[in-house]
Amino acid sequence: MNTEQLATIREYCRDNAAFEHLKQILVTELEDTRQAQEQAARSQQLLERESSIIRVIGKLGQAIIDRIQQSLDLDETLRSMLHEVRRFLNADRVVVYRFNPDWSGEFISESVSNQWASLLEEQEGNPELRQNISNCRLKYLRAEGSSYTDSHLQETRGESLKTREIFVVQDIYKAGFSDCYIKMLERFEARAYASVPIFVAGKPWGVLAAYQNSEPRCWQELEVNLLMQVGTQLGAALQLANSIHEARLQAERRQLIANMVDRIRKPLPIQVILDTTTQEARQLFHADRVAVYRFTPDWNGEFISESVNEGWINLVSPDVPKVWEDTHLQETQGGRYRNNETLAVEDIYTIGHSKCHIQLLEQFQARAYAIAPIFAGKTLWGLLAVYQNDGPRSWDATEVDLLVQIGNQLGVALQQAELFANLQREIAERQQAELQVRQLNQDLQQRNAELEVANKELEAFAYSVSHDLRAPYAASMASVRPF
Description:
alpha+beta, elongated, 12 helices
């Protein structure tokens, strides 16, 4: 209110007291109006930002779904999504962290400002970053900021995440973290962060996290909601990707079995069938090795076919032992596999194997494996094994079932090969017998020809002798007649 307006108001007032009272009323009303206008402006900004969040989330979610449906690589789309989130939050770093089956994990995608180091690159040079912090009790600050919880993902197998907790930390040095965890966060260059879990098919899959490195930060509810919505979108997109991948994998599995059946119907050598099958199976399982192991009569065995990734030793090679001794299989004459059972091991070091068994598997360079028996008729002929060498692996039921189906088809192929070999042997024997009969016939014909020639010669000789004898006889008869 300016001076002229105050002078006008003073003229209409009876005294100074009335003027001051009216002035106070007007000032209060003006202040209320100003605050209301500011609140309206803030509400409008908040509404616009919420609308912006909706557009960002919708855009990112649709982009991911489009790329999944088009069977395109998600890596670039994921990086673009994280870049949009980081830009919107004005954060220093946004990452996606994926859990492994043992609840260790690794950063798989990142958007980071230029002045900060890349955690993806740091992770490549420091494999320990792929693991959770062992031997260190972690304290995560809950979203409401009023209490703390001790947790360790590997020890609790993600129990803290199963409740879909959101972790918000304004300053890592004031959150009550243990020293070792603070040191790990300092390696991430983080000063403040907010993280939300990513669920796929109702199970914890990973974490979406935003970091502020330069200074502490008070995370707003709207910002945390953005992370929650993006995490939900990402989980739904990953579940869709898994469904499409599983459908494609099922089609590839059916095709693999169909190819095996087709090869079995053809008179192919069994070694060709084994080599081709192990190659196709390794690619389908995305494993480091698939091998066929044949039992010897004393229940030792040897690898007779394999397909192996580059960088791993060959088990089918003149440079490795031909016969592998497994005392358990020897003593039990095939062990569980005699009963047509399978075995799937996520980690050879946690399953409870004996020391000698682990040493044998270490010679194979195996860390995880799954095995199905191969029966030729009712006889346990050997084993079909798929190996993961570079780390633990969780084998799902469909993978084990596929291994069983392949083993069954190989059993049929062995029977077919045996029948074919018997048929070939029988044909060879018949051909040999026919050859011998033809040889005997030829010999008989030769003898008959020789006898015919001999008969003719004998007839000629008899005729000659007869003629020679007949001439003197006739002469002697002629000389006797006069008497």
